[in-house]
Every structure is written in C-alpha cells, then in structure tokens.
Amino acid sequence: MVLRWTAEDLSDLSSVGNGIDVLERECTGGPGDRLRAARSAGADFRREFAATGMPQRIDTCDLVTLPYPTRFGLFRASRAIAPFLSITNRMLVIRWTDVDGRQRVLLFEPSDVGLGRNTPYFAELARRTPAPIIKRMVIEHGSVLGHLAGLGIAPADVDYLVFDHLHTQDLRHWVGTTAYQPDLGEQPTAVFPNAKVIVQRDELIGMSDLHPLQTPWYQPQTYRDIPVEVFAPIDGSVLLGPGIAVIKTPGHVFGNQSLVLNTSTGIWVSSENVIAAECLTPEHSTLPGLTRWSSSWQQEVVLNANTIETTADQYNSVVLEKTIADRSQTDSRFLQFFPSSELTPMWTNPGTRPTFSHHAITHQS
C-alpha cells in the first residue's frame, strides 16, 4: 500500500455535479447487449445534453509533443514502418457561470509535463534514447501556468482539475502535499489552492493496489502525501454546468472518464481512448492499414491500447463517445472527437500522418 488514504477516507468526501441517469442504466446482458446498450444510452444522452446550454468560453492550450509507440496508439491496425508516432498533449480551459451566478473555471488535462517524465514507461524510454534524439522528438509548447496567465486566469480562480485518467500524472505541485518531498527538495504548496480534482472513485481506489499491466503508467508514490480532501470523487457520469459533463468511459483504465462539451459547433467529446478523430471512422482514414484492418476484422473503431485493462469495455466506451459527438463542420466524414493526446505529423515517423486533425476546440458564447 503506497497511499495513506483508503476507500473509507474517500467515502467521506463530497462529490460534484448532478448524476446523469440515462448513462447509469445497468445492463446485465452479454457482451453484445452491453455494446448495444452503450450505443442506445449515448443517443439518449445526446438528445438531453444539447438542451443543457453552453459554457461561456473554451480555450485550447498546447503543452507538449512527444513520441509514443505506434503499436499502442493505433493498436493492431497500423501498417506504418515507424515504430513511434507523435502525439500532442493539450489542455482545455472551460469557463461558465453557475446557476447561483458564480464564475467557474475547469482545466481538462493540465499535465505537469516536467514531473510526468518520471512515469516508469517514459523514464525507461528516455534512459535508452540518446539525448539529441529526445531533443528532436520532444517539443514543449507552453506550460499550464503560462497559458493561464495569457488567458488572464489566476491560479486561485481555478475550481476544477480533470483528467481522463491519471496515467503519468503527478499532482503534487498543483494541489500541494502534507509532507516534505525528498525527490522535489521541498514541500509543495498548492498552485491551485481552491481546485478540486474530479476523478472516478474506482480509479483512486485502484491506485492503492495496481495490477502489473498498470504499473508502467502510474506514479502512485507521488499521491502518498496529497491531502485526500483535494479530491472530488464521482461514481459514474455527472453534469457539471451548462453544456459541460464528465462521463464514465471505462476500459483504457478501470476509472476512465471523458469530457463532453456543447458548443456553437455542436457536441464535442474528449479523452485519450483514441488518438485521432479518424480512429472513430477508420473507413475514411488514409493511415496505412486502418481502413483495411477495420473492414477485415469488422471493428468500427481503433483503440489507443497502451494498457488493455478491459478491452471490450474500452471499445464500448469509444462507441458511446462516437454516438454522442457531432459531425465535424470542417469535414463531415469525421466526428467532433478531440483526442486529449492527438496524433501529430512528424518527419521522423513515416506512415503516421493523420488524415484529419482538430488541433483545438474554440468556443465563445
């Protein structure tokens, strides 16, 4: 046990948002029934969600572009010769007004890029890769605090931190610790003193006893001295504000979740369940292998599969996301699915140039 807090500690914490009943229907049937249930629930939720309103503003902030194994990002479908592709991690900044008139700010995927490098998988990859190559393949675009300053948002004004899952995430700078951290040479005070971390309860509980499939991607020891009260654990899907929801999408990890946004261009969904919009409609992809693989195996989506905790659940979750998202107004072959880590063309990675990219979600009401 690495964590000091337990499931009992988490049970005493207050949660946030209002539960979304249409996504909480229990399906007791077989695998095919669960897939059909996900598609049906997504269609029902989509109709209801559009009527909840819209946030005031959404901004997209590029953080870092980094290498990622092709066999993970495009699962078994890619025929690219490059062993690595590149993905760009981005933060979304969402602002809205609550029913009581209070201004709210949510950060989706505010990754601490520096501390994220200590994730076991990436630390080992860096150890085996010559520094000049790392310098050419890893591009830092901006920091979380730098982007917020540019948007005129003070750290104390941030209400919520949300991640689709806690792979690679070290939150100590963001929420502070209760003890001195030898590896940091300090006891961090919270950069975001008023922020709650919205996370699925079962992911927090699972981090206390990781499965070997999970250990390369988590940093559980960094949560040991995080005060438990910074978390706002949720069980399932919740509506946070007008046109803002966090929905449970298990599979990539047990406690995976996705952000859903209603905007002036329609409904968007964001997560890391897939790394490119075309992975939801691979029949339109020009990436080597995707269309043929999808057709041959009768699989309508191509998963991001660095961890295969419950692959059928992840497939169903992507179908749920696919059912909720609107068509892109730029190219209707693709959906308004915004990968939190989006496939990015890089000259070093032949055969991995995406057919279509979103780059950003922008919205202002």
UniProtKB/TrEMBL annotation:
Record-stated family: Belongs to the metallo-beta-lactamase superfamily.
Organism phylogeny: Bacteria, Bacillati, Actinomycetota, Actinomycetes, Mycobacteriales
Residues forming coiled coils: none
Cofactor requirements of the protein: Zn(2+)
InterPro entries: MBL_superfamily_lactonases, RibonucZ/Hydroxyglut_hydro
Keywords, comma-separated and alphabetical: Hydrolase, Metal-binding, Zinc
Protein name, entry field: Metallo-beta-lactamase superfamily protein
Region forming the signal peptide: none
